[in-house]
Specification:
Nucleotidyltransferase, domain 5; 27% helix; 24% strand; two-stranded antiparallel ribbon
Length: 181
């Protein structure tokens, strides 16, 4: 009788120690690299163009906010100075602008039918205005914080924002600070 000799084979082991070490390092790094911020999208409108109508009374009145290095200038109708907010040592007067726009919105709502549903504003920017000023101004003119039923909510001011270039200094702006819309 012949004996068969069985070759003893060792069972192959799967060594995953290095793979586990990689995962222990990689998972926290990937989690830390995630961006945990909100992305907000703000829809901008094209500026309101002048109508082809020859009747100047029929043209829409545009609310403009000119942002320069020295001040905010609020114009209504376009080109007629309504209010100027000079820049102070602390910066632009966003709080004063918001308060004035809230009063102006109430005035519009109590006015005629053409201004009751006024929701648009045109921001006219000089080329040297920085990005953060533009974003803060857009947030200021879009809404304000109001208390409604013991809750703090964002109340609407002028959410339809258009951007444009500011007129050159010494332009054709009338001084009519006492005018009411």
């Amino acid at each position: 009788m012949r004996r068969r000799r069985r070759i003893k084979s060792e069972e192959a082991e799967l060594d995953i120690t290095s793979f586990m070490n990689l995962m222990i390092v990689l998972v926290p790094v990937l989690l830390l690299s995630l961006v945990f911020s909100q992305v907000r999208i703000l829809n901008l409108q094209l500026p309101v163009g002048s109508q082809a109508s020859s009747d100047p009374d029929n043209e829409p009145k545009v609310l403009e906010l000119v942002i320069s290095e020295t001040a905010f200038e609020l114009n209504y109708p376009a080109g007629v100075l309504l209010k100027r907010f000079d820049k102070t040592e602390k910066g632009y007067q966003f709080a004063n602008l918001s308060t004035y726009l809230q009063d102006l919105k109430l005035t519009f709502q109590q006015g005629d039918a053409a201004t009751q549903d006024k929701r648009d504003i045109v921001l006219l920017l000089t080329p040297s205005i920085d990005y953060q000023t533009i974003v803060t101004t857009m947030d200021t003119v879009r809404s304000f914080k109001a208390v409604v039923a013991a809750n703090l909510v964002d109340a609407e001011l002028f959410p339809q924002i258009s951007l444009g270039d500011a007129p050159e200094a010494g332009g054709n702006v009338e001084n009519n600070a006492g005018a009411k819309p």
